[in-house]
Design a protein that fits this description.
Elements (H helix, E strand, L loop, with lengths): L2 H12 L5 E10 L2 E8 L6 E6 L8 H20 L5 H14 L5 H15 L5 E2 L1 H17 L6 H8 L1 H13 L7
Parallel strand pairs: 1-4
Antiparallel strand pairs: 1-2, 2-3
Helix pairs in contact: 2-5, 2-7, 3-4, 4-5
Length: about 180
Amino acid sequence: MALAEDLDSAARVASEHGRVTAVLAAEPDAGERAYLVALGDDEARHWLVLDAGFAPVQDRERVREVASVVVLAELAAELAGGGQLEQLRAHLAEVRFTERPAGIEEAEAAALALEHAIGVPPLVASPAYLDEVGTAAGKLERALGERASPFANAVAASSGAVQAFVAEVVGRHLVPLR
């Protein structure tokens, strides 16, 4: 079944619990798909994690794993390339055209590779996805002459937001967790 069909199936199942506002796929462990479903609006948002068979997950640690990999993947896609990858690629093309500095083609290729690594939704959040985006971001940073990794620093600075999101998902999960 295609990912879009899986997401639709997860939304249909979860809609029994309320209005579905988002469904995100995750594989915290290779081959073990789960779906993080947001229900309701910002003020009354609840969460539901469904397993690969679209049954509600009751294991607290599994819910934490799914929420963690989803939020990290969202952050990685948002923060990679300084969070403005499209503008960076346009700027690199302009610099190549006007100044022709050495190494500009490498930077452009690395920016394009990062864009491909990030991909387009819908995606499956996974450690492999995070590794691919992190590796591509590192190559771009090196091509741009960065000594420290702004991407790694930005992800590390987001640890509080990650913890808060995971706590919200666990605390507002629609089925009791054990």
